[in-house]
Amino acid sequence: MNYEALVNRVESLPPLLDTAQLIRSLYADGIQNVDIVKLVKVIESDALLSANILHMINSPLYGFSKQINSVSQAVTLFGTQMIFGFVVRYSINAVVIANLRAYGVSNERFNEVCHLQSALVHEWYSKIDLAYAQFLTPLALIMESGKLILAKELASNAKIKEFSDGLKAAQNISLYENEIFNTSSYYISALLFEHWNFNPLYVEILKSLDFEHSNTQKILKFVDILDVVRLAVNVKSVFTQNSINEASAVLDEIGEDKALFLEAVAKIKQRSEK
Fold first, then answer.
1. Which domain does 98 fall in, by range?
2. What is the reported pLDDT for 60?
3. Are the C-beta atoms of residues 87 and 57 closer than 8 Å to each other?
4. Does the predicted TM-score (pTM) go above 0.85?
């Protein structure tokens, strides 16, 4: 198992689903220029995608008191950026099929963690900078995707139990991944998004999460926000006292308001228990 094997695995992946590629083309001229009518029609043309998006959106995590029953309603409430995140999440799950046993979670639990991270970004940062929240919420939903690639590599080398046992003892998931693969799952997520020609900013942010890839202040700000979120909720620890303390320590370092963050954590925890 090595970094080169992971890169080869990413480069051998097929394109995203046809519907996802068509939807991505609608974003080619910028998020602000997406034709919403066309977007809704394309999503509605794929019954499985439509059902999946409505299922994700109606999760209690996102805090809507009423059922959302149509794609057009979903786009209106969530905006085009978040809808793209849902489309990509669905497409990745269809294209990259892997068992997450190596990370000690079921695939269902893994998806829950991704949604918790996304919901936390939205709930927390919408109170601070709505534009940042809208940009990062879909990225938080898909940033763990590299773990699917690592899990496939571990399975193909019969290393699931060995990795899982080591992960249980590890203090930091990314550091442990780097020991085994000489990279982290977030960097592999960046390579995935590069392979599929996603937003270059997403690629740069993910490459910078665990490695000194960028010194751009805006990128580093995004990295700090996602770092706090992945410390608070991840495949090993979901809103435990220890994980919240670790996230709070980073908040102190970067000078963010802990009260707003802890308020968001409390709300997401409450919704997740419904």
1. 3-272
2. 84
3. no
4. yes
pLDDT tens digits, 226-241:
999 999 999 999 999 9
How far separated are the first and last CA of the chain, in Å rounded? Answer: 41
- CB count in 10 Å sphere of residue 25: 11
Please count the structural domains in the chain.
1
Query: Residue 215: which CATH number?
Result: 1.10.3210.10
Torsion of CA 160, 165, 168, 171, to 10 degrees: -100
CA distance 247 to 232: 5
Per-residue pLDDT tens over the stretch 78-137? 888 888 888 888 888 888 888 999 999 999 999 999 999 999 999 999 999 998 998 999
Evaluate whether 102 touches 164 at the Cβ level (below 8 Å): yes
